[in-house]
Description:
By secondary structure, this protein is an alpha/beta fold. The protein is built from four helices and six strands, in the order βααββαβββα.
Amino acid sequence: MPMIRLTVPSGALTEEGRGTVRRDLADVLLRWEGAPDTAFFRAQAWSYLVELPAGAQTTAEDDAPRFLVEVTVPQGALSERREAGLVEEATRTVLGAAGLSPNEAPRVWVLVHEQADGTWGAGGSVVRYADLVALAKGQTGA
């Protein structure tokens, strides 16, 4: 199942953005992964916000906040087109949550980690990508 984690310096998000960014990023991930919009799949799209303490993030150039989005999906879940769309929309979502303009996009990095088939477990059992595809088809009636 998909997981998304945003790591930011404390105070880098707007108050409204801090309250909505986790669910917004989970929605972005599910949409680009092509998962059915069902309660079951929404409940499996875990989204984390990790806020670093003041002074914990910097670059060799400056102390302006940087944003790291890490996405974990089953191997094969994203085509190149879907991955590109996910990266673009996740970047826009983070910029919006931080109150930044599109020209600040280089401050957002998105890393997509594909989990090899057979190395993902849930509920005490190994979950394979084919199992997820079958489940999705069953929930959409496809």
